[in-house]
Amino acid sequence: MPRLIVSQNGQEYRVVAFTAAVTIGREPDNDIVLASPQVSRHHASIGRQENGDYLLFDHGSTNAVWVDGCKVNALRLGHGTTFRIVEYALTFVDDQADQRPTPVFADGDEAHAAADPATVLLTPEQAAQAAETAQPPPREVAETLRRLSHLCRDLHALDEEAALEEGLLDAAMDLLRAERGFLALVNDKNELVYALTRSFNPRQQRSEVRQDLVQQVMDSGRSVREDGAAGGGSLVCAPLTSGGRALGCVYLDGRGRDRFTADDLTTLELLALHGAVLR
Residues 254, 5: contact at Cβ < 8 Å? Predict the structure, then answer.
């Protein structure tokens, strides 16, 4: 599931997940509200196209959308693309998206097309038509995102690190309906230690923990989802990363094959990323 990492002046990070479309602007009816008088009421939007591409559109805003110092009207987003709206930086994250250099779509004298010869220019009418094809997320996905948003807001309200760790693990188990779980963190000696557990003791039940997958997550900085865990169950594990370094991981499991979906893994990734930013 794609998501946007939003920051204001390099601070106050938040993560917004979506499936097909997201609107950005100053008014409260937007999916992402940027509370600055310099942001237009309905500044921009992102829509998923039939070929799977995600396109960003500027809705004729006063202060524009900027990428690498260039003003753009429309942009095909690739994994890791960052665009700016006034003092806000928004980074598009989607491991399934193309990671090639992102061509810019624009129109008129202010167009800044990328050097890629395959760049396609869209007229404003074509851009508007493409934006209208985006479909809202399914109801169950929207409900999960609503709960995720509320849980992230609750995590923001926690001041003590211990309370944050408990809130993070409990939120993950609640959203993914996991039976067991633990939060492991890297200590001052660069050792991965169990900071918090739920419903089992990984030290005493070490054989039931996929240590190889935990190590894989810590080494690669990428999450995993696997069936056939101990006892024929399923597991998910996501890293807490900051500054390109894994600070720890969240590990959940439960009985039954196919217990966790790809969307569940994305939800856990977002929670872990949010928790790492707050630590």
Answer: no
- Please write down the long-range contacts of 153-157, taking CB distance under 8 Å and 24 or more positions apart: 155/274, 155/275, 155/278, 156/278
262 against 216, higher pLDDT: 216
What residues have CB less than 8 Å from 259, skipping those under 6 apart?
177, 227, 233, 234
Residue predicted with more confidence, 71 or 12:
71
Q: What's phi and psi for 65, nearest 5 deg?
A: -115, 135
Long-range contacts of 187-194 (CB under 8 A, 24+ apart): 192/218, 192/248, 192/249
- 244 in Cβ contact with 221 (< 8 Å): yes
Write the CATH number for 171.
3.30.450.40
Residues 160 and 259 in one domain: yes
Q: Is 74 found in the same domain as 174? A: no
Q: What's the maximum distance between 2 C-alpha atoms anywhere in the chain?
A: 67
Give the number of residues written for the chain: 279
Domain membership of residue 52 as a residue range: 2-99
Number of domains in the chain: 2
Same domain as 164, residue 267: yes
Does one domain contain both 92 and 175?
A: no
pLDDT tens digits for range 113-162: 333 333 334 445 554 555 555 444 455 555 666 666 666 666 666 667 77
Backbone phi, psi, residue 122, to 5°: -105, 140
